[in-house]
Amino acid sequence: MARPGSDPDRKPPLGEPGRYVVRGNDWSALDHVRPAQPPTVSVVVPHYRAQAQLDLVLAGLAAQTHPATRLQVVVADDGSPSPPVVGSGVVVVRQEDRGFRAAAARNLGARAADGDVLLFVDGDTVPEPTYVEELAALPALVPDALVTGRRRHADLAGWTPERLLAWFAGGPAPAELTEPAWLRSAGSLLDADDRSYRFVISAVMGTTRALFDEVGGFDETFDGYGGEDWELAHRLLTAGAVLAHRERAVAWHDGPDWGLRGDDPVAARREKNAETRSLTRLLPDPAARGVGGWWRHPDVVARLAPGADVDATVLGVRSLLAAGLDLQVWGVDPELLDGDPRVHAGEPPAPVLARCRTQVTQSGPLLWSSGEVARLADLVRPGGVGRVLGQVEGVAVEIAATRALRRCARSGVDMSTLFGEARVDMSASAPGPHPDLAHHLPQL
């Protein structure tokens, strides 16, 4: 297999040397590039009542090849009975103990950070000496980068910082535990798809401070183990993040992966189900949600300009809702459709736009052929174009990927350059004034 960057057909990134805007998700030309000056980096370490493990993590961070003068370490304590003990220069921030609140703790640490690049490493996950240098390189070059490192597993029970540093210097290594196959299967993520957010784990994650702040950080409604990193990764990808897996950025988790711990299977299932419920309410992934149901955050946002009369508008809304997608409509009085919760007046709110994958804009109502809206939405999935445009009997239609809209707006680079766009024929018709609802509605 050719290493990333070896494909002669891949185009180089855009932008001035030192700061780049990437086409699609193709960061391959930057795989071995390093910034001219090491970036300022803040590493946020969530912690709760595990001083021995924290000692190892801090020892690993103190041994980084990244210049110490451009590296800040922030320990975010999730309400331990006693403050963590840290060395000189390490920042400690604390929140009260109100249960498991890792998402809130990471946000607390991020607010205290002053680096241009934000890295996260868990309080039981020890970074190798090149971890910061490897994980921070792409965010230092690409303002939109979201990078996940490689988490390996070892039994570090009873280890001391001195023993750890001896290992990093070439001494005896700990007993390595099984590395989860699902993480090893990530590859470089150059061909990331809509579900690649599942390869991002906050135990070994990095992005730019600007992008993290733009999306609002972790969702603090997560108050149990797991899920908050996938939700954030999905929101970052929807915001146009460039996703990368840096296998050279290695950190060692003390103990086996959650799925290999051999805990009580019933308790483990309950914990996993709680994570799934938390994710489905916020994360509009059809493969995770299944079909049916009403969701506060839909997958597809449709903006519809009302038609010349009520009947045409009602028919146009019903045609969109019949598309078989997790779709909601904005711009129409919901009372026209008996208060259907999927129909809204005005503009879609920011939290909805932050999570929807696809946006449909119509200058008037249309009667869509069966499966046509879903077909057009598929054209703007990762690997396709960023936007498709069409016109049906005077009604202008735009269907765009939110990730493409957001990155283009942030960078100032046009859609055709960054993602591509296409004018396509669309199978639909305009209902015209005063359509026969009794005739059309049964056919939707």
CATH architecture of the largest domain: Alpha-Beta Complex
Q: How far apart are the first and last residues' alpha carbons, in Å?
A: 48 Å
CATH topology of the largest domain: Spore Coat Polysaccharide Biosynthesis Protein SpsA, Chain A
**Count of individual beta strands:** 18
Q: Which descriptor suits the 3D outline?
A: elongated
Backbone structural class: alpha/beta
The total domain count is 2
CATH superfamily of the largest domain: Spore Coat Polysaccharide Biosynthesis Protein SpsA, Chain A
Tally of separate helices = 15
Question: How much β-strand is present in the residues?
Answer: 15-25%
**Cα Rg:** 24 Å
CATH class of the largest domain: Alpha Beta
Family: Belongs to the glycosyltransferase 2 family.
Pathway: Cell wall biogenesis; cell wall polysaccharide biosynthesis
EC number: 2.4.-.-
GO molecular function, one term: glycosyltransferase activity
Distinctive features:
single chain, 444 residues, Spore Coat Polysaccharide Biosynthesis Protein SpsA, Chain A, 2 domains, 7-stranded mixed sheet, 15 helices, 21% strand, elongated
